[in-house]
Amino acid sequence: MPQTVIEPLEVLSKITANVEKVMKGQAASIRRLLAVMAAGGHVLLEDCPGTGKTTLAKALARSVGASFNRIQFTPDLLPSDILGVSIFDQREQSFRFHQGPVFTNILLADEINRASPRTQSALLEAMGEGQVSVDGKTYVLAEPFFVIATQNPVESHGTYPLPEAQMDRFMMQFSPGYVPPEIEVEILSDQEKTHPLEGISPCVSLPDVLAVRRRAKEIRISPEIKRYIVELVGRTRTAQGVQLGASPRASLALMMAARALALVDGADFVSPAQVQELAAPVIAHRLMLDPQARFSGLTKAGVVEAVLKAVPVPA
Amino acid sequence: MNAPPLLIAAAALFWGRQVGLLAPAAVIALVIESARFVPWRLDLSRENQYRASDICAALFGVTSLVLYLTIEPLRAVMLMLQWLPLFLAPVAAMQAYSAARKLDAGAFFWTLRKRHKEGYARRLVDVSYIYAAVCVLCASNANVRTGEYYLANILLGGWALWSVRPKSSSAAVWALLLALTAALGYQGHQRLNSMQAVVEKTALGFVYSLMHAGGKDPFQSRTAIGSIGALKRFDHIILRVRPEGGKPPPALLHNACYDLYKERSWFAREAEFQAVPAVGAGGWKLSSAKSPESVSVAISLAGGAGVLPLPAGAARIQRLPADSLRKNRLGAVKVEGGPGLADFVVRFNRKASLESAPVSADLAVPPAHGKTFARIAAELQLASKKPRERADAVARWFARGFTYSLFQGGRPLFSDPLENFLTKTRSGHCEYFASATVLLLREAGIPARYATGFSVQEFSRLENAYIVRQRHAHAWARAFVDGGWRDMDTTPPSWSDAEKSRAASLEPLRDFGSWLKFGALRALWGSAGERLRRQLVWLLLPAGLWLVWKFRKGLGRLTLNRLRGIKDAAVPVQGWDSDLYKVEKRLRAKALGRRPWEPFTAWARRVGPSLRDEAAASRLKALAALHDRYRFDPAGLGAGERETLKNGAETLLR
């Protein structure tokens, strides 16, 4: 494992190459995933079972030499199963806090919508502020703290939709989607004997990832693009069929994500195309649609697409 | 601002020109359009928007009330519609100067404010186009019937549509279609107009034939004789009578007299109006008879014109400023160009009369009724009596055995209602009694006419005056006895009680309102009101300022934010002179233009394959990336790169 800090761009391309060994035909998803990681956000992968959500998350986690925990969310999971619990130590006659799986660098929250909303909410503070409060004591999480959550579409059996507040904590939500048949054949061939995931080893170190994050904050963004972002987000609040539009947190997330994507693309400024590419993954999952509009076939991504078409892009 | 430049100014000025308020319109236009050149914007919170629109609405309400109380309701409505852009102007200006480009819809609808509290999303409205439309609509209210209105409508509409026309089709096609629409619209509205005229005429004729016109028409009085069911009468106060000199008021006030009875209607023949000479300011001389008594009468005149209710023997009228006063031979007096509220003094002589001497027509009994009246006259042995006694006998006959009733049951199929009244029911309202009396007197050889007007019988302590309600409208006979015309009212005295019993339970309340309105009208139309009326508009200004002052705490602090960026005017942005714009313009002409939402890089990818060769396509892509940096990288381009962009664009243009 390399110990010296390497160039952020190189870090990103190394991770991309590593993950692509496992995730065939998912270049767009990897780009977005890296953008979220570089921007310091959290990501929610939503798709049908078996599309490679968990594999993608695991591949990324294994590529980075960082501590990695995975929680399989189930209906009977309790908040203390995530955060940790204080247990009475007979020898020292005091309570000792046993850290839960949340104390890690990369957390894979698998099938997050299978746990009850109460348990889902346990992650709120950790994701929002990078800290955990238990029994009146606050524990600061290690840097970086990156949550990759996966979930099945809400309509599936045995799922609890995530509360809006929790949804808002995710910088991005996207679906890896199905790959073309020829790629799928390739996947079959790869896994004939062993799973390619087993052949993956960390290619970058923790300081490398932190350097990438620092670099993302140096990407330049013009006031015009900022206004474009605000206009896009603002339009969702008045769009037809939307009950609750996106918040300023969405504007902020879109700016950070666009900057990180610019870094992934090797640019040092944000261009409108990057904002447009990320608008739907960043904004859509924060919207609440009118039931009426939802029944008539309107989707959240559809709303964002319509807004993108309606707002003239700075050019 | 969202509307195209100068659209609002043009609409406002057009409105001002049509309704004759050019100066305020110019101010509005100037204030709203100046927003394009002002570098700052107001940061108006939702609550501030609500308050500002509430103040405008309150001003509108107060003004409407004042107008309603001081001029006729219909005119008040028309005026308020004409003035609407004045009251909406602050709202339009608020949007023009606010950082948000639209206003919260809750500013206009209370229900939306409530919905917003319940968690529904805010709805925003763009007031600029609405304001322009309101200006055009309110201009129509001035009713200036020239082609100018239609033309302005087309031009303003075209102006508004120009900015949103589909960019793909040429301006010429667009203009042609607009002209075609305008022409079709013109034809359509002309045809609609003529169709409306036809329908209106037919409908009016039909309705008029059903209606019983009251005593207002000095040439014809259509009676309710023959109609069945209860006679509908109203309680509102229409006259106020104050006797002067401590004498009782005249019991009857004349509106008009008629001399020909035909088909249940009374007509005034040869009753052309002649001008009455004016005597001094507001004085009129009706006759030269001595006039020992006087009474003051107040009546509101719709449009300053109408027939005056006067006591019998009216000789002079004072305190009535009007353009003209005219009377006819039957004693009806008509005023024109008078005040909205006529509060005048009549000097009169109970023994004199305004009417002309009797003629043979005043003795005519319609042949259809001849037999009946001849029989009754014979019954009463009128022929053998002196004229004075004959009249007394007629009065006595009606006083015996006849009753007053507002209700008429079904009437026999082939019998005339008047005959039915005389021979069978012996019960009816004043029109039956008056018509029958006139005809019976004529049968007895006494010249008689049918008079309509009002009976003065109710004293109001609230107003310290006699008040006359619509239900006090009355009809009676005028008989020529002892060389003069005398009132002869044969309707049983019980009629006033019968009418009173039908008064509405809320009458005192309504009377109080009527008294307030009368006071306001008198203040306006009295001598002091002349000035007041002219300055009404200027009185509204301090009222508005007072309202603003009253609400000043609620307005909170308006924060002036220097939001230069949000200004609509084209501020020079970074990289505005990029040479790629020229390339894009050239390609637009070949229908390869950039879509409004398309970044240059995406556009270059899309149109690349349509270019002349591979090299051009890849050059365009490279230039688009460079353009992006020139425009959006705060660090900008180096001199060399700038040169590359310029040269690359020139190569492509070649």
The structure class of chain B reads alpha+beta
Strand arrangement within the widest β-sheet of chain B reads 11-15-18-12-6-24-23
If interface size is counted as residues with C-beta under 8 Å from the partner's C-beta, which chains form the largest one? A-B, 28 and 26 residues
Q: Could you name the ranges of chain A where pLDDT drops below 50 across 5 or more consecutive residues?
A: none
How much β-strand is present in the residues of chain A?
A: 15-25%
Oligomer: heterodimer
Beta-strand content estimate of chain B: 15-25%
Number of domains of chain B: 3
**Which structural class fits the helix and strand makeup of chain A?**
alpha/beta
Q: Can you put this structure into words, describing what you see?
A:
The complex is a heterodimer of chains A (315) and B (654). Chain A is an alpha/beta fold and 315 residues long. Chain A has 2 domains: 8-192 and 202-214, Rossmann fold (3-Layer(aba) Sandwich); 219-310, Magnesium chelatase subunit I, C-Terminal domain (Helicase, Ruva Protein, domain 3). Chain A has helices at 8-22, 27-39, 53-63, 79-83, 117-121, 123-129, 164-169, 181-190, 206-216, 223-238, 248-264, 272-283, 291-295, 300-310; strands at 43-46, 64-65, 68-72, 84-89, 94-99, 106-110, 131-134, 137-140, 146-151, 172-174, 204-205, 242-244, 288-289. In chain A, strands 3-6-9-1-10 form a 5-stranded parallel sheet. In chain A, strands 2-11 form a two-stranded parallel ribbon. In chain A, strand 4 (84-89) and strand 5 form a beta hairpin. The N and C termini of chain A lie far apart (44 Å). Chain B is α+β, with helices and mostly antiparallel strands and 654 residues long. In chain B, helix 3 (46-70) packs antiparallel against helix 4. Chain B has 3 domains: 7-146 and 529-560, no CATH class; 220-360 and 452-523, no CATH class; 580-653, no CATH class. The longest helix of chain B has 40 residues, at 171-210. In chain B, a hairpin with a 2-residue loop joins strand 25 and strand 26. Chain B contains 21 helices and 27 strands. At the A-B interface, helix 10, strand 12, helix 12 and helix 14 of A face helix 19 and helix 20 of B.
